[in-house]
Amino acid sequence: MSELAERLVDAMNAIHGVHPGHRAVHAKGSCARGTFVASPAAAELCVAPHLQGDEIPVTVRFSGGSGKPTRADGAHDERGLAVKFHLPGGSTTDIVSLTLPVFFVRTPEDFLAFLESQRPDPETGKPDLERIGAFVDAHPETRLAVGFVMMTMAPASFAGCTFNGIHAFRWTGPDDEARWVRYRWVPDEEAATLTDPETRALGKNYLHEDLERKLGTGSIDYELRVQIGEEDDDPNDPTVAWPEERTWVTVGRMTLTEFADKDCEPMIFDPGRIVDGIERSDDPILAMRSLAYGVSFERRTSVGD
Question: What is the pTM of this model?
Fold first, then answer.
């Protein structure tokens, strides 16, 4: 598994280039600080310490999906929101989410093949669209996520983006009842999109500048909702969205009040970092993300050694 994690990061570098000191993907990001307060409903569903209603400090990172730290904010990419909860005693737990509704593939091996299909042609410097198309044809589960990236317009603000936790986790409540859940961050701000000419007029860094401006004058607020899985919902397949009619519960609110620029860049936000009351699924993509993030972290923090 560790060798595969190295190969995944190598494949990301082959697409986006090697940028010392930066993540292999989601290289361009901005940080913020705030607090999270769980709702009473959260404590009924899960015994995890950050879900008991206390005010929990959080550090978050908003990012674009590319591995190029200079990529324009208006590019047709997925966006990311990583949230680190700072718990009493110094421990942490993370939620890592995307604007994508699902992930591209089911297994790390397929993800490596998907990345390799995007490797730029040595002669043109651009991806071979026929090779990518052949991969998608052979892996129809990829179409939803690929279509989302291709067709979605750029957001006007990070503050209006909805972010989905594409993996499932098992929550155990005080009654010892266990439930599979998926996370979703829902913003207070209404979503808005921009055309390509509009994003070009705003400049390459408009999303990050907007984040700094908003946090300089007020707050950015999100609800954390969990979707409760039912018997037919597979907790181990990140390529399939659970039906929207499943039960949703609002389990807390996050209020961001401080722009922290690049202060969180040295941190790892790991979707597999959990606490008592929460268990990982057997989703192989979830397990591999933890390993690949570790590889990327080691490489970017060893610059200059």
Answer: 0.95
